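Example (one chain per record):
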Amino acid sequence: MHIRFRICKEICRRRRSTRASGRKLSIVPSLALVTLSAVVLFTSLVLSGVCYRYRWNLIYFFYATKLKRKRNKRNGDDSYDFDAYVSYADADFDFVRNMLNELENLLGTRLYIRDRDSLPGAPIAENIIDGIRRSRRTVLVLSRAFLRKKWCRYELHMANMESVSTRRSVMTIIMLEDVSRQHIPPEILYDVQNGRFVDYPQEDMDMDQFWRNLHVAIEM
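Predicted structure:
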C-alpha cells in the first residue's frame, strides 16, 4: 500500500512538472512574437518619418526619372521648350492673361501655362514637374490665393527641387499683393526678405517698367 502511494505521488509530480515545462515553452514563442512585432512597428514608424520628411524629394525624383525616360525615347534633347513655367492661383488668372499679352505676344517670351500647355490625360503632379523641367525658369505669382492652393504650394516645392537638383537659380517671384512674412513659405522667405522679387505696381503709369523688369528677371 505504501509503495503504491509513492508511485501515485511520483506520477502526479511528473505530470505537474510536464505542465510547467509546457507553459514555459509556450511563453518563448509569445515573447518572440511580441519582440518581432515591436521591431516591425518601430521600423515602420522610422521609415514613415523618413518618407514624410523627404516626400518632396521622392516625388520629384520619381516623376523626373519617369519623364526623362520618356523624353529620351522621344528625341533625347535636353534644351528648354519654354522660357518660364508660370505658377498661379486660378483667382489671379486675369494677371496671367496680361502676362501672355505683354510677355509672350509682344516680347516673344515662351510661357508654360498649365491650363493651356499641360498634356491631357496625364496626372496633374506629373504635368507640373514636366512643365517645370521643360522651362528655364519658374515664375511664382505670389498672392494670398496662391498660398491657399495645394497645387500652387506643390509647384513651389517642385521648383525648389529643380533648383537643388540642377544647382541653378530657377524661381522668379512676383509679389502680386502684400503677403504677411509669417505666411511666406520657407523655400522663398530668404529671397523675399532680401527684396529678390518683382513688385507689382500700384499705379498704371508704372506698368510698362514692371513688364520690362519681369522680362529681364526671366531672361537672367
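Caption: The beta strands are 82-87, 111-113, 135-142, 171-175, 198-199.
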